[in-house]
Amino acid sequence: MTRRLIISGLLLSACTALHAQEQYELNSGWKSLPVKEVKLDGANISQPEQKLINWEPAIVPGTVLTTMLHNRQVPDPFFGMNNNRIPDIYTTGAEHYTRWFVKDFTEVAPNADGQVWLHFRGVNDGCDIYLNGKKVNATRHYGAYLRQTYNITSYLARDGRNRLAVIVYPPAVVGEPNGGQGGDGTIARNVGPQYTAGWDWIQPMRDRNTGIWDKVTIEKTGAVRIKDPHVVTLVPGIRQPEGHQAAATIKVSATLENATATTVTGQLKYRLNGKSIQQTVTLAAKGITTVVLPNLVLENPALWWPAGYGPQNLYELPLEFTANGKTSDREAVEFGIREIQTAWNTHTRSREISVNGQRIFIKGGNWITSDAMFRFSKERYDAEVRFHRDMNLNLIRIWGGSLTERPEFFEACDKYGLLVFQDFWMSGDCNGRWVDPKKKEDQWTRRQYPNDHGLFITSVADQVKMLRNYPSLAFWCGGNEITPPQDILAAIKDSILPAMDGTRYFFDFSNSDSMSYNFIGGNGDGPYGIQTIEHFWAHRTFPFNSEVGSVGVGDITSLKRFLPAENLVAPDFAANKVDSVWDYHKYISYNNSLEPYGPAKNLEDWANKAQLVNYDQYRALMEGFSAHMWDWYTGTIIWKTQNPWTALRGQMYDYYLDPNACLYGLRSGSKPLHVMYDPVNKMIMVVNNTFQYHRDLMLEVNAYDMNGKQYPVEQVFVEASPSGVQRHIELKTKLDALKEQKGIFLSLRLRNLRKEIIDDNFYWLPAANGQYSGLQQLPSAKPTITAVRKNKEVVVTIANPKNAPVAFFNRVSLVDASTKNRILPVFYDDNYVSVLPGEEKQVVISGEKVSTSGNTLVEVFGQNVATQLVNIK
Hints:
47 strands; alpha+beta; globular; 16 helices; seven-stranded parallel β-sheet; single chain; 16% helix; seven-stranded antiparallel β-sheet
């Protein structure tokens, strides 16, 4: 359970993890026009009395394309082939997507030494800024990842009526979207996202994500402003999640800026757990200085742990600067007390990760970004990161062709316990690792991208300062599958990180030998396509694989959201035939993995069979890696767990936040304490990914035929040692005989001494010829299904009668009673569940929309269970 510790009487109501004394966001009421339709210059446009006739509503934060979509000037690029109907900037020229954005706001210039600051957290790529007829930035801003701050005190109107006008320019080099990874590669000449020119999981974003894509805020302070506070926590020794803790050390520093023309003397201070820490500081006129406060030794700290290992305790540190008895500025910094260590495992030949002195086996997912058009929200971040926690993962890697993720993403990772591996903005594809006929320029030229190395270095320093306080941030990485150019690499390793964040390990690039020694050859990542179940267990891959993955198509409900009716056609592997819209949405083949389940009757049947494959693929992936924990592997990161676009590959849930069976197969295979079946050696194994011994575990092994008849196989008490995996029972002879003709169901359970089930793993095994012939003729099951609302959750019970067949692979969904559409997002503590004869299973549905979505029903259907719509009592 997460304990959220609120340690201050000075906390404010702001919702971000870094709270200023007084701050608000300019996120509504913006207007916009393309530059070619505007006849006035910035000085005139930004005059509050200037009438804005026929200006359009604008979405800020957001890209140009987001505003155009809002105004119905372009079709939804996520549906069907609509993206092809939107003009590409490579063809139109930059002016087509160059736009003015205007915002009127009320703010009066403060009295005495008060200051007002304008912050831009992200503009792609260039911009000029005007306020009340005056240009704010002396030179044009460039850099998608470089924050901007301007003191606008002297620009504010006396009557408080102000107008902000911003002209936003696209990246200088937009690249040709020729179907390559990053198109022709020249998109990487900029310091910005590379995927916007297209990749193997997305089509090009036509405006290359030009726009004021992140937050714009106004901050009010006194004479002295607190900038870039930094909290470092030292947690020596080997810790346990529970019990009394030895002391931890808290190190705090911050930069102070005096905006006035007079010297200011004051105190930088905070109070935590009853202890006060402060330092007297004198700042010269217009002076800026970094202050290091005395260390705080915190007794019995509540520690922050990754998901599955312990609670995610968080503190708030109320940092304050006062002068002459008055508060000039406050910043409430949220942080977690934890220490991350790494070591080289000489046995596996890969990097090993420890948190608070305890070794962590990494189970991770690769992340692109939340939305391909940068339509970000705190709520969506929270939902997506929660899905990763629910999959029993403990790390998310932010892929280098995208961006440094936003503070709201890191807040969610802090909350749910996901470590973060953050790449900087390089990729082997665009930045020259390989010969590539799709690329415009040769490797030697691409190796020196971007054009402006200084901007890249400055942006890295800025983003490090923005993100370094989040306990979930675990690693920095130079880029995806390639290092930055040597001067950039040296600046990051030798200057920026030692000075600004000396606590996190830096990987030169994502699959470098410092992470995982490549004894196989090739790229050091992959494979990426569908594999046999046995492959995951028997084939030894890279010892800390930064990218390994498989398929991920959703069910028929998901497919209908973005595929036109005429394109709802199942792929035909035998005929090598895939619908053109599926191909456009980057469908990755299931090969012949569906054939053992029998011919698909229609697309719905095909998609339901695909869910069986999805579940098996990702359960086997994580079980196979866990089976060789600390022997072959120190961790793995799945490519990939989510899509920011409506792609048909590599996703545990679709763009609309509807989970598919991948999520629940991975959830099962990733459980911290887990019993599993090795399909190669026919062994039953128990993996323990916790720090505690688990003794007196009853291991139950039962088989069931297609009619539901039980065949007891084994029942034995076992124990599981901390952070280890143990083999217990060999089943080859028994199982081969049972599954020879039609296949068999295999039920594995662990019970504690109270006879409670603490792990339940259910397999369907094919017949001797590899066919699921029994499943193809599986008798119908008719379970009783009830749904009861308890507090803010809905508890669904599926009860299967005695002497019935297994009620197999049931999908539970919360749906709107009127439309029968699924309510999204909501969260299921399990799904695609199978219920044995004479037993029942419960699925708990939670999330904000469970209690706020009005009249709802529960829908349940399975492979041999007819669809039922159930009223919630």
